[in-house]
Amino acid sequence: MTSNKIRDVALHYLANYDYDSFSLNQIANDVGIRKASIYAHYKSKEDIFYAVLMHSIKSGKHTIVCFFHDHHQEPLEKTIKSFFYWFLIESKKNEELKFLLRIMYFPPSNLKNYSSKYTGTLLIELERLLKRYIREKIQKEKLEFSQHEGEIALSFITIAEGCLIELYFADKPRYEQRVEVIFPIFWKGIQ
User: Fold this and answer.
1) Which of 84, 95, 91, 63 is nearest to 174 (CA)?
2) How far apart are CA 186 and CA 123, in angstroms?
3) What averages of pLDDT result for each successive group of 10 residues across the chain (191 residues)?
4) Taking Cα atoms as reference points, which of 84, 46, 61 lies closest to residue 182?
5) What is the DSSP secondary structure assignment for residue 21, as one 8-state letter?
6) CA distance linking residue 107 with residue 133, whole number of Å
7) Residue 74's CB: how many other CB atoms inside 10 A?
8) What are the residues whose beta carbons fall under 8 Å from the beta carbon of 4, sequence distance 6 or more?
9) How far is Cα 75 from Cα 84, in angstroms, rounded to an integer?
10) How far apart are CA 86 and CA 63, in angstroms?
11) 60, 54, 58, 52: which is closest to 7 by C-alpha?
12) What per-residue confidence (pLDDT) applies to 137?
């Protein structure tokens, strides 16, 4: 499937470089086709961006959901905290997550409205899923919190976004330091 190859090569560039720092010629060369052949699959570079965005949102959401599913036997506190360390590793090797992290904070200026609409929707969907997950864990583990599961989910996503910015701009030790400082405050605050 040439269209998927084009999308996957573009994903690599978009996850690792600015939107304007690569060309359709580079994508065509990496795929092993002529630039003109790209237009049989995509109308423009923007069209490829849209395909990468939709693919990455679907894949990224699935990857995050799988994390929580794979940790459903662990206590909620451990699962939530381990998410930060899992994401640290996963975002280095998973180009869809790396792309989403980049695009959430630094979308191409000409595609900002489009990408913000879809990444914002992704965050809302993840919040909804996390709320349900927390509700199930509260029932299963007989947990009592001072906050409603929706507030806990939103608080977690807010903290995660702050830590992810640190991951994007700083190094691993600074990210880990931030997680180690904020997580106990978060956990104590919801009890």
Assistant:
1) 84
2) 19
3) 93 94 95 95 96 97 96 95 93 92 90 93 94 96 93 94 84 89 94 88
4) 84
5) G
6) 30
7) 14
8) none
9) 15
10) 11
11) 52
12) 95
CA distances to 105, 116, 126, 127 from 121, in Å: 14, 8, 9, 10
How big is the chain, counted in residues? 191
User: Residue for token digits 């806990």?
Assistant: 152
pTM over 0.70: yes
Q: What is the pLDDT of residue 115?
A: 93
Assigned token pair, 52: 């990468």
How high is the pLDDT of residue 117?
Answer: 94
Q: Computed over its alpha carbons, how large is the radius of gyration of the chain? A: 19
Q: Which residue has the tokens 């090797």?
A: 93
Q: Are 156 and 133 in contact (CB under 8 A)?
A: no
What is the pLDDT, as a whole number, of residue 167? 82
User: What is the enclosing helix (H) or strand (E) of 191?
Assistant: none
Give the separation between CA 59 and CA 40, rounded to whole angstroms. Answer: 25
Query: Rounded to an integer, what distance in angstroms lies between the CA atom of residue 155 and that of residue 159?
Result: 6
Residues 6+ apart with CB under 8 A from 179: 81, 84, 85, 163
DSSP assignment of 113-168 equals HHHHHHHHHHHHHHHHHHHHHHHHHHHHHT---SS-HHHHHHHHHHHHHHHHHHHH
The C-alpha atoms of residue 59 and residue 76 are separated, in whole angstroms, by 24
